[in-house]
Structures are given as C-alpha cells and as structure tokens.
C-alpha cells in the first residue's frame, strides 16, 4: 500500500517567492492534516480537512499561508510570499476518519533564504 | 486547554536495557492517546494508541504503554531496547470528536552499544 506521498522532499527558495507543497493522502482516507515542525515550536497542526472541507484552520500562522483540497486525492499548502521564518519541515498526514490514527508522509524540508 | 508534556528531552540507555518514556497530558474528558516514533529525515510512525478499554496497550516493535487516569499519564515502555530504537518519540493527545492532535515536544532516545 502506498503511504502518504509528499512533494517535493526538499525546497530551497528565496524570500518573497511563492512556495507550493503537495500531498497525496492514502486512498480511502477522509481526513487530511498539514503540520509544521520546527526546533523551537515542535510539531504544530496548521489545518485539517474532512471530506475535502477545511474543518480547523486555527493553526495557520497568517494570511500568507493557504491550503486547498480540490479532491479526495490531492491537497496543497501554499505560502505567498515566503519568509525565512517559514523554514521548517512540513508534514502531511491522513486518517480514515477524523479521530482515527494519522499516517504521516516523509515531509517537505523547506528552506527560505 | 489540552496539553502534553514529555518531561525528558533526551534519554540515553544501553542496548538490552529497559526503557520508559514519560508522557503527561491535560484534557477534560477521556482522551485519545498516541505514541509516534520519528527517525531522522522521516515522518512519524504510529507505535500504539489508546482509545478505551484495557489500559495496557501493545504496539509495534515490542512497545507497550499504560494509561493511568489518576496520574494523567501514558508512559511508553519496552523491556529490552535495540540499537535500531534510537529515534525521537512523540506522545499525542486528541479528542473523540475532532481530528486535532496535540503533540508533546518529543523525547530523543540514544542507545549505547
């Protein structure tokens, strides 16, 4: 079984540029989660979707961040414009239902110069 | 508000020795509790979960955890540690109603030969 697939694995870009992170959840999973991991703040939930609908986006740091889930097999997290403090590892996770165990992708390591 | 505390940032044990990683949570109702493990450069892998029922839960890789409501704890144990267990371990708490998980700051486990 394919797990959660994230792309790209690494992204290095200059501040001010638009960054788009992609996620393909496990087939049949109805909930999708975006997390950010940093040394200072640990693992933080940014937003999660249930049946392609955003349920809780209270963790999205500011308006520069946006997330979409146009269908059950694809989601994007976009940062525009990017800033150096956005540098982190971003994880996508999916679960069969909202309160079921989450399965994580391998993450995107983002560096904003 | 929900919170998770992992009191030990870093633990070193000898290979073959027993292991206990501590986790304390704050939650108003019966929590859903999880332990995840993260190897360098990878996403989080679920070790075990507690939803209800037997307070001693078995997980993968020989790990177990015990839910103690009176102590608000969910400590992870393994009777004999292997060098491959070196990784970072995260405790997380969630509710039965939403998908939102709160993660602890993590405990890094180092295994001495």
What does this structure look like?
- The complex is a heterodimer of chains A (113) and B (113).
- Chain A has 113 residues and is mainly beta.
- Chain A is built from no helices and 11 strands.
- In chain A, the strands form 2 sheets. In chain A, strands 2, 4, 5, 6, 9, 10 and 11 form a 7-stranded mixed sheet that branches. A 4-stranded antiparallel sheet of chain A has the order 1-3-8-7, with no helix packed on it.
- In chain A, β4 and β5 form a beta hairpin.
- The relative contact order of chain A is 0.33.
- The mean pLDDT of chain A is 95.
- Chain B has strands spanning 3-5, 10-14, 19-21, 24-26, 32-38, 44-50, 56-58, 64-68, 73-78, 87-94, 101-103, 107-112.
- In chain B, strands 2, 5, 6, 10, 11 and 12 form a 6-stranded mixed sheet that branches.
- Chain B is mainly β.
- Chain B has no helices and 12 strands.
- Chain B starts with a strand and ends with a strand.
Fold topology:
The complex is a heterodimer of chains A (about 110) and B (about 110).
Chain A: E1 5-7, E2 10-13, E3 19-24, E4 31-38, E5 42-50, E6 53-56, E7 65-71, E8 74-79, E9 88-95, E10 103-104, E11 108-112
Chain B: E1 3-5, E2 10-14, E3 19-21, E4 24-26, E5 32-38, E6 44-50, E7 56-58, E8 64-68, E9 73-78, E10 87-94, E11 101-103, E12 107-112
Parallel strand pairs in B: 2-12
Antiparallel strand pairs in B: 1-4, 3-9, 5-6, 5-10, 7-8, 8-9, 10-11, 10-12
Class by alpha and beta content of chain A: mainly beta
Q: Helical content of chain B, roughly?
A: under 10%
Determine the N-to-C terminus distance of chain A: 36 Å
Order of SSEs of chain B: EEEEEEEEEEEE
What can be said about this structure in brief?
With 113 residues, chain A is an all-beta fold.
Tags for this model:
heterodimer, A: mainly beta, 7-stranded mixed β-sheet, 11 strands, globular, B: 113 residues, 6-stranded mixed β-sheet, 4-stranded antiparallel β-sheet, 52% strand
């Amino acid at each position: 079984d394919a797990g959660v697939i994230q792309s790209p694995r690494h992204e290095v870009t200059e501040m001010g540029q638009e960054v788009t992170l992609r996620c393909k959840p496990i087939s049949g999973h109805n909930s999708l989660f975006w997390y950010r991991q940093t040394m200072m703040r640990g693992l933080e939930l940014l937003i999660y979707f249930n049946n392609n609908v955003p349920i809780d986006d209270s963790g999205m740091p500011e308006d520069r961040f946006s997330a979409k889930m146009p269908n059950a097999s694809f989601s994007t997290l976009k940062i525009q414009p990017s800033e150096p403090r956005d540098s982190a590892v971003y994880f996508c996770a999916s679960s069969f239902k909202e309160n079921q165990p989450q399965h994580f992708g391998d993450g995107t390591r983002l560096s904003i110069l | 508000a929900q919170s998770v505390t992992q009191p030990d940032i870093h633990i070193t044990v000898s290979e073959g020795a027993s292991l206990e990683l501590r986790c304390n949570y704050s939650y108003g109702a019966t929590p859903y509790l999880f332990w995840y493990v993260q190897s360098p450069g990878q996403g989080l892998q679920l070790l075990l979960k507690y939803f209800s029922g037997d307070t001693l839960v078995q997980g993968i890789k020989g790990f177990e955890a015990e839910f103690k409501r009176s102590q608000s704890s969910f400590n992870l144990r393994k009777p004999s540690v292997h060098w491959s267990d070196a990784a970072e371990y995260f405790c997380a708490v969630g509710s039965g109603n939403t998908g939102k998980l709160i993660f602890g700051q993590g405990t890094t486990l180092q295994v001495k030969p």
